[in-house]
Amino acid sequence: SAEQIKVGFAAEPYPPFTSLDASGKWVGWEVELADAVCKEAKLDCVITPVAWDGIIPALTSKKIDVIVGSMSITEERLKTIDFSDKYYNTPTGIIGRKDDKFDATPEGLAGKIVGVQVSTIHQDYATKHFGDKAGEIKEYQTQDEANQDLAAGRVDAVQADAIALDAFLKSEAGACCDHKGNVADDQAILGKGVGIGLRKDDGALKEKLNAAIKAIRANGSYDTFSKKYFDFDIYGG
Amino acid sequence: MNESLYQLANLGLLALEPPGWGAILLKGFLASIQIAVGSYILGLIIGIFGATGKLYGGVVARDLWEIYTTLVRAVPELVLILLLYYAGTDGLNRLLGLLGYGSLDINGLLAGIIVLGVVQGAYSTEVLRGAIKAIPGGQIEAARAYGMSPFMILRRITLPAMLPYALPGLGNLWMVATKDTALLAVVGFTELTLATRQAAGATKAYMTFFLAAGLLYLMLSFFSGVVIRLIERRARRGMAGPV
Amino acid sequence: MSEQILAPVAPEPEIARESLLMPHRIVLMLVFAAILFCVIYFMRWDWVAQYQGRLIAGIGRTLAMLFSSAAVGFVFAVLLGIAQVAGPWWLKWLANGFCSIIRGTPLLLQLWLLYYGLGSIFAQFPEIRSSFLWPYLRQAWPYGFAALTISFAAYEGEVMRGAFAGVPRGELEAARAYGMGSWTTFRRIWLPRAVQRALPTLNGETVLQLKATPLVATITVVDVYGVISKVKQDTFLTYEPLLLLALIYIILTGLLVVVFRYFENKIPVKM
Amino acid sequence: MAETAQAIQIVGLHKKFGPLEVLKGVSLSARQGDVIAIIGGSGSGKSTFLRCINMLEMPSAGTITIHGETIDMKKDGRGGMQPANRKQVQRIRSQLAMVFQNFNLWQHMTVLQNVIEAPVHVLGLSKGEAIARAETLLRRVGLYEKRDIYPAFLSGGQQQRAAIARALAMDPLAMLFDEPTSALDPELVGEVLAVIGDLAKENRTMILVTHEMKFARNVANHIVFLHNGVIEEQGPPDQVFGDPKSERLKKFISSVH
Amino acid sequence: MAETAQAIQIVGLHKKFGPLEVLKGVSLSARQGDVIAIIGGSGSGKSTFLRCINMLEMPSAGTITIHGETIDMKKDGRGGMQPANRKQVQRIRSQLAMVFQNFNLWQHMTVLQNVIEAPVHVLGLSKGEAIARAETLLRRVGLYEKRDIYPAFLSGGQQQRAAIARALAMDPLAMLFDEPTSALDPELVGEVLAVIGDLAKENRTMILVTHEMKFARNVANHIVFLHNGVIEEQGPPDQVFGDPKSERLKKFISSVH
Ligand SMILES: Nc1ncnc2c1ncn2[C@@H]1O[C@H](COP(=O)(O)OP(=O)(O)OP(=O)(O)O)[C@@H](O)[C@H]1O
Ligand SMILES: Nc1ncnc2c1ncn2[C@@H]1O[C@H](COP(=O)(O)OP(=O)(O)OP(=O)(O)O)[C@@H](O)[C@H]1O
Ligand SMILES: [Mg+2]
Ligand SMILES: [Mg+2]
Questions:
Q1: ipTM > 0.90?
Q2: The CATH fold of domain C53-266
Q3: Gap between the Cα atoms of C21 and C42, Å rounded
Q4: Which helix (H) or strand (E) holds A234?
Q5: Full domain range(s) for residue B112
Q6: C-alpha span between B15 and B24 (Å, rounded)
Q7: Which PANTHER family does its entry note (chain B) (predicted)?
Q8: Is residue E54 in contact with ligand 2, taking CB distance under 6 Å?
Q9: Which of B132, B141, B146 to mutate to test the interface with E (most CBs of E within 10 A)?
Q10: How far apart are CA D30 and CA E128, in angstroms?
Q11: Whether the CB of E22 sits within 6 Å of ligand 2
Q12: Residue ranges of chain B with per-residue pLDDT less than 50
């Protein structure tokens, strides 16, 4: 039978990539991606939700075998874990309340409270680029909480993956807010896109996953399920 | 405007059938109860060994149990859960690896039970130790005088005789066990609290779900309270008046 | 289990009085030293220097949370306790209900209910948003403080109820017989006597409260637990930060116990 | 003059506990310097009567006059009475110092603190003054050395002497003793009775409930025999003990001896 | 025959508690049917001696032989002794039924459960058999009606009678009583002594420590006077009580009467 691997998701909702629906199923773009990759690589994948905060320790202590969690490939993370090739890449955006006009620049954010999710590239980016000017960089365990606090007025701006922000803005709760722009790029922090996280000694698995990602890109299934979620090319440049 | 207030009344979100989230909550609740029961029983077993070890064990055993109970009771459960959850299973797997076995698949439920059980064990140890000390010494001496073996004394006399003294403490511990399951939310285990947050996150109806979960916990604690009182009354039937 | 188990329970040697130099103790200490050595030399601790300042600030915030919530919570606990012992039936009923509800639900849930639930409702009222309270209400710590305070009040309310009820009636009667009014009796006799009785329990409960404080990190209050979480996420280390955190809490617990011992010993109680 | 000489005057005191009428019209007057001993069988209402005098129990009917001041009472809704003026009751209580059977010392205070507590917080004495007075009194009852000890570490006799010092510190118009020695071991009774005996010699107004007949005879100048909630017989000790009139008193005296 | 007739034989028993030597070489032999009363002042070592017989205390030296079987002991490292064979000790204990001063009934069991506990779980009787035996015995000590009551709800005398039934249920070779009536109120002593007196008439081997001299004289056929850890004097009751030799015994007897 097929090799069994445990696919780690963040247990906290991260729409439209991974979230639980009312019937208890995990749904979202990344779930479909994981399915497609696993099918292609002939792997028997078991979805294993873990706390985002502990997702890397969970990987290294073998509670899970791969991370499919919109985790960007960065130098810092590469010191601890390994990544497959990227499977999507999106710009980083900033949103704020509609009645509050500002730009996604250090100057625009001067004095503002910026919410980010912990241990994300956004946290590092915001700390480095906005840290001095902004009123405070507030860290949240989940993206969802950051968004929630923006709606509740407890932060002025939220920096995150533009797509995730877009999903929030489209939701009922996101009606309060709009997109203020994307931040200037910083490859060293924002990385080279999102990849599947792996343990360092898992070379064989990495080969398989890379081949599978390439294959679903080539055979069109990647585009098929992406269309359901996005009206643009999420794979990026 | 008063969207959340409106949602408070939107009980449709709690329906058992999707799009209601009732089933998810109940599943989480069930998981909470499973963990609570499991860890409580594990804690009791550890507690029995701990209490007898502390009272009757050799010097080494006594010191080791003392270290265990002191450390566990001084460190926040949250920290212990993180430490044991990651380090515990990691260490176990490494040990198994060293011994040449494959890695063990410890699922979240089992890990949760073990982690909370170890925490509960420290408190159980103290409760049971106090209860055993409260047994009049003569009762155990009488058992010796009638030729009972040490294990039989433990089984037939010590454990049942200490029960009335231990029950109030054990009752409290059960209440703690039911509530400590919520802490597993921070390691991503979908028990009631995390299920609540997932539902709340998906629907943004925070108040509705938090209050619903609170009600479930309250029901559990109320029901437990009734059962504990019944058990206590039964265990105290041999005692004249309140202790 | 040797014949030892047969021994009557009474003669339980006081561990503290035994010598630290017993052979097995020395072995234990050696083992401990070896573990300590391994921990120091085989694990990474270079980050400690870098986070030192934030750690100290975090400890400060933890202690601030602990003491402020315990102090305010204790005032409420006294009220809850006395209400249950001496109040009219409806007040008894209310106080009792409050204690049962808080004690019956997890603190984590209460915290989230206050922060995400109540907090988001506040945000929907422009009146509140424009009021002078808003700068506070939009922060996280007031919610953490409120949740911790309420929880402490409920648990201690039970303790104080028992303590108030346990003060011998005769001592209160003596106070009345010497012409003290109800407030003087309460302030000079009933309350101090009840607190004295409750001190050992309060000690334990305050340690429990200390251990509950890290939960506020889940609503973005950066206490020492929050700082350690950050270390974990920045460095991708797991065990080292958690071990340090455990050590910090052990030390704080030890200090609390010592402080309470001091107060307990101020009024000797005959065994 | 005749007014003030009448230290305590009680007229027609009734006390009901629910349906049970414990006191059925008891009257008593004590002049300044009187030492009155109340004797009687268990359940005859002695404690209740004493506790009514300083309003620890509310009488159901009757008047209580302390040094010419009658305590105002009003009807509560449920057929009982209640004090009309709480401040007055507190003031009168502070003038009638009660010594309890179980001492009722405040356990969280040292002996000295116990003695100065009420003078400072009820009478409003300065702390220094109260301490000076307390130390004199403690020396008198032979407890000066124990002044910084907590009551739990004293013998019963010492505790009762501390309680007497506490009562004396109020410089009361009259002292009320409810079986001050019955919670003591026989060996300790003597030391407490000695202290009370000394007080009696000083012309202090005292009302004491006691089971120590010999002591009552020696110390009191008036004996009241309570039975079933009424005063069955009263008079000077020699008459009451030497020549009891009623059958019941005769039986009581013979049973106690 | 001479062997088995010797029910209990103790030779040169010593017992030290730390530096304190409580028993300094006590020897005693009881034939089948003997009733031996041990008397002596407080602290003379009576209880310790009785507790050594069934090894509730480990003797420091000496031998104990029950119905011809000598209990194996070996030296422990620290100058004391310990049983060589735990099973043997348990077996012998089950043949020597002890009745304690404080009854020591198991509080979590009813009277009947107390009585059948050891027969079922130590002797291995079937439950039905044990209950039948227990009911006979309970009837004998007059507690049949109380068989389903928990001990806490019995009077002291009833508790002690239940404890005696519990001991009898083991059908023991000998019974050991340690001051079986001294924890009882005076009114209740009689009922327990009556039961023990009946047992004595039945030719049951018994060793009893008692302060009830009159009872000892009536019931025992041999009196042992223990003083300071040695047997100061022993003999038939009439001789020991009627014509004591040693000064100490004389003094003891006169002090007790
Ligand atoms: N608070 C109360 N409620 C109901 N009944 C009471 C109360 N206090 C006293 N009594 C009853 O009143 C009666 C008289 O009690 P009291 O204590 O005055 O007797 P006493 O003469 O002091 O007896 P003793 O010598 O035993 O102290 C008793 O029958 C008692 O049961
Ligand atoms: N477990 C023990 N540890 C140390 N000393 C003990 C112990 N048990 C008894 N002793 C001491 O041994 C001495 C004899 O005690 P034992 O109880 O045998 O006296 P006894 O003759 O039964 O006196 P009593 O009539 O008061 O019961 C006493 O001095 C006692 O203090
Ligand atoms: Mg009385
Ligand atoms: Mg004895």
A1: no
A2: MetI-like fold (1.10.3720)
A3: 29
A4: none
A5: 29-235
A6: 10
A7: CATIONIC AMINO ACID TRANSPORTER, MEMBRANE COMPONENT
A8: no
A9: B146
A10: 75
A11: yes
A12: 1-2, 4, 241-243
